[in-house]
Specification:
Elements (H helix, E strand, L loop, with lengths): L12 E2 L1 H8 L3 H9 L5 E3 L5 E4 H10 L14 E6 L3 H13 L4 E6 L2 H11 L3 E5 L7 H9 L8 E6 L3 H6 L8 E4 L4 H27 L1
Parallel strand pairs: 4-5, 4-6, 6-7, 7-8
Antiparallel strand pairs: 1-3, 2-3
Length: 212
Amino acid sequence: MQTNTTPDTPEDYCGTTYAAKLLGLSVGTIQTLVEKNELQAWKTQGGHRRISMPSIREYQRKHNMLTIQSEPRDTRLRVLLVEDDAVTREMLRGYCNRSTMPVDCTAMSSGLEALIDISSIKPDVLITDLDMPGVDGFELLRTLRQNPQFNRMTTLVLSALTSEEIESRGGLPEGSIFMAKPINMDWFNGFFTAFLASRYADTHANDAMQIA
């Protein structure tokens, strides 16, 4: 496994969690494939593993898997869920997996994981907790706000913090949608229903303009 080589752009690599999702394998299996050099990877100075996206695509071709490029970009709502509480994370991911709406949810347990993979995932919606160890939701949102690549991404913040506590820690970026914990699943379902309806309307409006 390489240790020092760094790719040119974030789109050239992803973290272990997202690699596991792309290939439909466990994180442990991904680590084994790296050790066997079936996937090319390296570690940062901080010890975080980066996996080459070209090597993932090659593994998909070799094993006749669905390739990343064949995913229609506009047919599924891409959601990145960042939540350190396992019960909440699995509840929301389970909702997305069971939904009859076209939602593709990638769930992560830390802000650091999200920062590693968000350029590869290119989510339409980021759902994040605020109070997390390490890179918390505040730092995650501040970092993303500095990157114009994510200006059009919708952000839904979930937290048990009070509005006063949130303001004392710097507040939320303009345009963020806030939902207090415990999570109201009826509201959560309504959020996705409304978001998808709005995107559908925008898509058809753009198509009509192009025809005209």
